[in-house]
């Protein structure tokens, strides 16, 4: 090694330094003390804890941090302290050679249980496990499914980048940008390439939340995305059924029973404002969720999965007729969401409806109908959709010229 390289290595070593210290701590047993260990890396301290060595309180030299010769086993005990110090130094040197980030917390973790830096995929697994077990969060199955979908996409991305073992602490802004770019170009299915901006933004926020959780749980020493503000989603115009398209959907009689059942369920979504998961929940709870309103008529009253706020929706005639057709809520032909959306694509093709039609269009069709056909206020729509705030409501629908015309006509009548 030449002189330049030696100086460069020395300079690097001076950037990160570790100090190992020992001290005595009074034992519960009178007259005795336990020897404890602490490490410090560039000012960051971590207590390693008890070394398991017990001495007489006065048999300790605080300056040299050694057991005095008065102890008949001083040689053995000092040797154990030296071994511990050497082990901690070996961990430090190994991290340095691997050019990994060195922190006191990481060295402690490696010393206590040999745990290497957790990979991004491992962190996701632990996060989802915690979500399922955390009673305070009380997450439903659909929320956990959303997190698991993000996990699967992250795994696909890391495989594509040949970085499946990427440590979570290394998933910084540069990696997040790579992920967003990959999500925008990946082949989703036979007809769709790339995910929407809103979908990518939601995934990015979930990744940031996972890393924040990992830092709080002390699974990682630093959050590489701390301080980064995820770009807000840019939503296009909502995909919904116009009144004419909805009429076509509700009136058409399909020869194929599965397509007819799918159309019927879509009509219910369009006249309740429910997401598919909310409809599944309502069917399970209909005996208590279908209630008599203050107007004496039946209302659908149930907390929304997403907002945890009760949505209060009158049972409109289209819904009543379909429920009666199948002999009750419990007999509705509810299928897994993926299967429903596949069948809905066939319904859309048969009726020349928007090809990207999915169950989500039900809530958006309902919102458009409320704003622009029933001419309801934003406050009223919030009650129907189970929302405390109008923030983000524009994603589902917004007043358009139909509402303006109605308002102008009301003004003209008053004049």
TrEMBL record:
Q: Which Pfam families match?
A: Arm-DNA-bind_5, Phage_int_SAM_5
Please verify whether the record's keywords include DNA-binding. yes
- InterPro entries named in the record: Arm-DNA-bind_5, CB, DNA_brk_join_enz, Integrase_recombinase_N, SAM-like_dom
What keywords sit in the KW lines? DNA integration, DNA-binding
Core-binding (CB) domain location, by residue?
Answer: 118-215
Stated name of the protein: Site-specific integrase
Q: What is the lineage of its organism?
A: Bacteria, Pseudomonadati, Bacteroidota, Cytophagia, Cytophagales
